[in-house]
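Dear support,

I submitted the protein below through the web form. The confirmation email said the job was done, but the results page showed an empty box. After a refresh the structure appeared. I'm attaching both so you can tell me whether what I see now is the final result or a partial one.
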Amino acid sequence: MHEQGKKILDANAKVELAIGDSSAAVNEAGAAQISIGNKTHSHATRELGSASLPAVHVRSEDCIEIRRLYRFFGETKAVEDVSFTVKRGHVFGYIGPNGAGKTTSMRILATLDLPSYGDSFIDGLSCVNDPELVRRRLGFMPDSFGTYRDVNCREYLDFFARAYGVTGAERNRRLSWVLGFTGTEGMASKPIRGLSKGMKQRLCLGRALIHDPSVLILDEPAAGLDPRARIDLRRMIRDLADQGKTILISSHILTELAEMCDSVGIIEQGKLLATGSVEEIQDQQVEKRELAIRVLERSNEAAAVLQALEHVGEIIIDGELLRFEFAGDMREQAELLALLFARGFPVAECTSHRQSLEDVFLQVTEGLVQ
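What the results page shows now:
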């Protein structure tokens, strides 16, 4: 084996062990061998031409950056020209069906795989060129737990603390904090084989936190959890963001991502289709929204006034409530309400129905999801 390739494979194998998936180390080593050196990058150059990447420049408020990322598996493009940034201290939701490219790009960020083209950055450090420095700053929670039947929770966390080089009093302090934060302190001496799915996920999150990283990459952390466990996980993720940690999280539970994330990215068939805050993506995709205005008196007259306005669709009158589609922006909505007040109509409330994140996801991926 080429000496440079051997060094990179050894490093990848160590990280595979440190994330608790030692059974995948051999398979990943084989995959990584294809990705190193000039062979894969030469293939990428044939596909993409001779364009070179711009010089690295990450703004101070951006903690994570993925730039023009490609990953080929044979002729399959698992990730194709994906670029986005995540601001420091924000939670970014990565949305897409199985096989969309989420896990592949997250593994590249976690330095467990190499891109065919492009790069990703943590705090301005290249995940390709500076993997050791990147690993000190991030914690990775994979979508599978691994098999640890003969160790208890504290031994499990202690193993990973040692793997990350946490020693002495600091290791004991980190162990105590992680057990307390994840709510597993009462099970510290309990064998892992006896844990529920929810408790295993808590422990897996604790493993990602044991070295106090500034960045967390969480791959489907809520998969298979009951409603109570999902609520607890959501609370922990928001608490971590409030502590200043930057979090990239993938999930199929879109309603929960909408509640916990500052911004989201929608990926399908390896391509990033939309990115931004939930509200921004909703505004990009939705030209109209439904307004419901409650007028306590003379609702029929109010409906006639509104019906004459631009951007107002057909009005449905339900007693005091007027419902209609509105194609204007927020300023035009304010002008509409001001007109009603100026005409002396007693407006009691106005509500606006926006599409859910699930609705937006289906609209963005329409015609693509298989």
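Response: this is the final, complete result; the empty box was a page-load delay. Residues 3-18 form the longest helix (16 residues).
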